[in-house]
UniProtKB/TrEMBL annotation:
It comes from Bradyrhizobium nitroreducens. One of its GO terms (cellular component) is outer membrane-bounded periplasmic space. GO terms for biological process: peptidoglycan biosynthetic process. InterPro entries: Glyco_trans_51, Glycosyltr_51/Transpeptidase, Lysozyme-like_dom_sf, PBP_transglycosylase. This is Penicillin-binding protein. GO terms for molecular function: peptidoglycan glycosyltransferase activity.
Length: 252
């Protein structure tokens, strides 16, 4: 009987060793595949991204607005809507977020800004105009958060997110939808504009529901008061039909 237990223990140890070796092999393959094989932009490429020009698309004619020059209400509203703890979280690394989520029983926190910028920066490598699979996205997100400051990530989001109507960035979006400069946008227009990155489709019928939800997020974050929120929701949604066209109310 003792011999049987000794053999069983040795067999279990061998199987455990083989299992660990298999897991290590899978992990090594994942690191190689997503780190080197599929051609994601490297940390060196990310570090060499221009600090004054476009980061994702080679368009020197497109003006980049420094994050500090974006009106505070719009800047903070985008954070409240997409990633409320963008600056407060001790890390933006999605792998750490997943581990914390599994350990605490809560899902990862919203990461709309870093996810959007990750999808944008993949264009630094030729052939990456297609959608990345979830593992590649997570792997590349942690590379982006290691390579770029939070201010720079937010700046890329504000300047290069596609908002529909051929507009990349909030300045172009303000002109395309309202014919206004960023500094002239009203609260309801700020709220509408910051929803466009999630819903840029030109075929979508515009209404006030997503705008009002964004206003609620702004109010919850303390960016606007109750009266301001009520007034903003009561305003008709005036969208510019085309450059030079007169704005008209959209049915609510």
């Amino acid at each position: 009987m003792r011999k049987f237990f000794v053999v069983a223990a040795k067999t279990a140890l061998v199987l455990l060793s083989l299992g660990v070796a298999g897991l290590l092999a899978i992990f090594a393959w994942l690191v190689w595949h997503y780190g080197y094989n599929i051609g994601l932009p490297t940390e060196a490429q990310l570090a060499s991204v221009s600090s004054t020009g476009p980061a994702c698309r080679n368009d020197p004619k497109r003006a980049i607005i420094p994050v500090a020059d974006v009106p505070p209400l719009l800047r903070n509203a985008v954070i409240a809507y997409e990633q409320p703890d963008f600056y407060e979280a001790w890390t933006l690394n999605p792998i750490v977020e997943i581990a914390l989520g599994l350990g605490t029983g809560h899902g990862p926190r919203p990461a709309g800004i870093t996810q959007s910028v990750t999808n944008c920066l993949k264009l630094l490598s030729p052939g990456h105009d297609r959608q990345m699979d979830p593992i590649a996205t997570i792997y590349f997100m942690q590379r982006v958060t290691r390579s770029l400051s939070r201010d720079r990530i937010l700046e890329i989001y504000l300047n290069e997110s596609y908002l529909g109507r051929g507009a990349y960035g909030v300045a172009a979006g303000a002109e395309a939808y309202f014919g206004k400069a960023l500094a002239d946008l009203d609260i309801d227009e700020v709220a509408f504009l910051m929803t466009r990155a999630r819903q840029p489709s030109p075929n979508r019928t515009f209404d006030t529901r997503s705008r009002d939800y964004a206003i609620d997020r702004m109010q919850t974050a303390g960016l606007i008061g109750d009266t301001q929120a009520a007034v903003a929701k009561s305003r008709p949604l005036l969208l510019r039909e085309a450059p030079g066209a007169q704005a008209k109310p959209v049915n609510q």
